[in-house]
Amino acid sequence: MVVSFGARPADAATESGGNQLHDIHRLSATDLVAAIAAGRLTATQAVEAALARIRALDGDLRAFALVDAEAALARAGELDRAQQAGRLAGPLHGVPFGVKDLVLTKGVETTFGSHTFAGNIPDWDNAAIARLKDAGAILLGKTTTPEFGHKALTNSPRHGWTVNPWDQSRSPGGSSGGAAVAVATGMGPVGVSTDGAGSARIPASACGILGLKPTLGLIPYDQATELFSNFIYLGIAARTAADVALMLSVMNGESARDPWSIGRPQRQYGVAADPVAGLSGLRVLHIPTMGNPEVDHDVARLMAASLDRLRDAGAIVTVFDEPFDWSKRTAYVMMRAYQRARLDYLLDRQEDRGRMDPSMVSALEEGRTMDLQEVQSAPMLRSEVFHRVQALFEQADLIVTPTVAAPPPRFDQGIDDPFFVNGKQGTLRGNWYCYTSPHNITGHPAISIPMGFTPDGLPAGFHAVGPWFGEQALIDLAAAFERMAPWADRWPVA
Questions:
Q1: Which residues contact 301 (CB under 8 A, 6 or more apart)?
Q2: Angular region, 38: left φ>0, alpha ψ -120 to 50, beta rest
Q3: What is the pLDDT of residue 20?
Q4: Pairing of β 233-238 and β 190-195
Q5: For residues 402 and 252, what is the distance between their CA atoms, to the nearest angstrom?
Q6: Which region holds residue 223: left if phi is over 0, alpha if psi is between -120 and 50, else beta?
Q7: Where are the domains of the chain?
Q8: Do residues 291 and 427 touch, judged by C-beta distance below 8 A?
Q9: Given Cys at both, which of 209, 357, 430, 484 links 147, Cβ 3.0 to 4.6 Å?
Q10: Looking at the DSSP assignment, which residues form a beta bridge with residue 193?
Q11: Do the Cβ atoms of 134 and 89 come closer than 8 Å?
């Protein structure tokens, strides 16, 4: 069924000899490319290291919905033979990667985390996935997501609970939880996520990695069902700023299938030799809260330390605590209207309805009761918040907040269960992931950067938003923090 929205080299290492696979998984994509190009490693070794890591860890963590080991090894063998003949595929030659199970992958089952799409084999790749493959990256498989990516937690009736590698009693966030867990633990150095309300950035914060949501249209999202009102993005999960730059350089550019990307030339990104020096004079607008009443005390301390690092490097930090309408209700209405338009028919199929996550059913039922005037007004309100945010960039180069207001909840937290911050009860949406969704509807790029760990050993993220096409500034900021407060050598599991 096709449903679209929209021989190993003789010197390859084994787990018991040669280059030890347990070391290879620690290499960044950038370092892997260099090692393979220099002949110190093969693409097959890189893939085998990632597969070994998946075999060792994924039974407990459940980051992958599907692993296509046979195809990955076959592709690695092809690349190794091409290299022996003097040909490198491209800038990602031999790099293994995972793709969130919401993104179309040719010939590989894409179920959107749902029993209702079991057996769905797309006959085409999303444009950015095709570019990664053409550049030499090797698809390992599909990473887990809540059903249709509908919540900021990663569990589904199809795949169960994905858990946080730093503390398996906690959630990795969502909806790109599988991608974040895979990258955080070395099941491939990079991953492709999606982001409709923070889904690339929230799990990046919860898992201690980088998570980028680009400018609208920079990476084409040509499978969107609502192209012109689209607020969903392909994102990048990575451990290093250099890897974000490498992935983004390959994935961005025009696609005739995505109107937001048409006419936009492909851009190249990199990391400055001294990114910390680039912070001098940077105008940073710090917004402590965005409708949420509290920030967890430990997260607030990490945020304050991050702002101090910026000041010490010469950045000009201004606190913005004026009343501001972020139109969060507009983002919520647009999400529910989109979900209803795309998936409402499943509610009328009793067999499908019974196999779906109850919270997905509730979301679709809520979509049926949305006020028509509110839905019709959403595009106008989206435009208004865009103009308000644009005005903020007249006084700042970057806007910064925590990525989420507190450490991640328990793995079995319900989307509608109470969530407490500093002992005060609220909702998960209102108390925890409060900072990300406005920038999905305004189109501005944003990144979650690791900013340290709580006393309980849980990661927390520093969220930065740039002007349209300000990705290089976000990469520079991530690279600076990588120097000032390194995280890439800290692993949740050995």
A1: none
A2: alpha
A3: 52
A4: antiparallel
A5: 27
A6: alpha
A7: 21-484
A8: no
A9: 357
A10: 235
A11: yes
For residue 21, the model assigns a pLDDT of 54
* DSSP letters for 121-167: --SS--HHHHHHHHTT-EEEEEE--SGGG-SSS-EETTTEE--BTTB
**pLDDT band, residue 197 (cuts 50/70/90):** very high
* CA neighbor of 314 nearest in space, from 268, 341, 287, 274: 274
User: Which amino acid, one-letter code, is at 353?
Assistant: R
- Token reading at 282: 């940077």
Q: Write the DSSP symbol of residue 316.
A: E
Model pTM score: 0.95
For 411, other C-beta atoms within 10 Å of its C-beta total 20
Residue with tokens 């989420």, as numbered in its chain: 404
| Bond preceding residue 261 cis, omega within 30 of 0 | no
Question: Among candidates 230, 234, 233, 179, which has minimal Cα distance to 209?
Answer: 179
Extract long-range pairs of 369-376: CB within 8 Å, 24+ residues apart. 370/333, 370/336, 370/337, 370/340, 374/333, 375/333, 375/337
Specify the length of the chain in residues. 494
CA atoms within 13 A on the CB side of 451: 30
- Report which of 271, 206, 212, 205 is spatially closest to residue 237, judged by C-alpha positions: 212
Structure tokens at 316: 């000009």
Element (H or E) spanning 98, and its range? Answer: strand 96-100
Asked if 113 contacts 159 with a C-beta cutoff of 8 angstroms, the reply is yes
Please count the other Cβ atoms lying within 10 Å of the Cβ belonging to residue 451. Answer: 24
Unique residue bearing structure tokens 């919540």: 151
φ, ψ (nearest 5 deg) of residue 103 = -105, 130
Considering only CA atoms, which of 151, 102, 114 is closest in space to residue 353? 114
- CA 36-79-125 angle, 5° bins: 115
Q: What is the pLDDT of residue 2?
A: 31
In CATH terms, the fold of domain 21-484 is Amidase signature (AS) enzymes (3.90.1300)
What was the pLDDT predicted at 114? 98
Tell me, what's the pLDDT at 22?
57
Confidence (pLDDT) at 454: 98
Residues recognised as catalytic: 100, 175, 199
Flag whether pLDDT at 18 surpasses 90: no
Q: Residues 34-50: what's their mean pLDDT? A: 97
Q: Which pLDDT band holds residue 494 (cuts at 50, 70, 90)? A: confident
Alpha helices by DSSP H, 62-126: 69-84
b/e sequence 60-93, b meaning 16+ C-beta within 10 Å: ebbbbbbbbeeebbebbbebbeebeeeebbbbbb
Residue among 333, 334, 364 nearest 347 (CA):
364
Tokens of 375: 């839905």
- C-alpha to C-alpha distance for 447 and 214, rounded to whole angstroms: 8
